[in-house]
Amino acid sequence: MPKKTKNTKTKIVEAAWDLFYSQGYDDTTIDDIVDKSQTSKGSFYHYFESKDALLGSLAYLFDNKYEELKDTISSDMNAFDVLIYLNRELFELIDNKIDPSLIAKLYSTQLIRKGEKSLLDHDRLYYRLLKQIVINGQKKKELTDSMSVNEIVNLYAMCERALISEWCMRDWAFSLKTFSEINLPKMISCIKA
To answer: What distances in angstroms separate CA 177 from CA 1, 46, 96, 125, 190, one per listed residue?
Structure first.
């Protein structure tokens, strides 16, 4: 994908999610998104058929966060600690920048949608990064080799989705980041070597 194309889509997605958080999904118009992203309606409709189609772009927004975080990972960090770090940073983003009702809406659409599901797309940066962390962790004997790379990646992703689902079902009554800091290490402790 050409860099300019990626940048335009990124601008639209980031502007949309900023607006959804600050003024609410229902009060955000396509014109608002186009204005904030400094793009055009033609560009918007090139990538998204409607405002509702942006709900699936949340996974893309998360991948942008992982792209930023990749360069902040210290080479001497243990693989288990890297996974906990990535989760903490992502869940802090969700706590501070994403309207919780939109997370719930995204999850509900993923449950009823037939075919492609953005949260399960293993071509996403999220899954590619997790896979690399696990491969490196197994090579360094930091993560168990009694499970395959894919089993560990799928377990980790499933645990993240479980934490988010529980948070949504409890009406966002607490910090997702704090909830995960307490529970995720316990949930994935079986992957330690």
So the answer is: 33, 35, 10, 21, 21
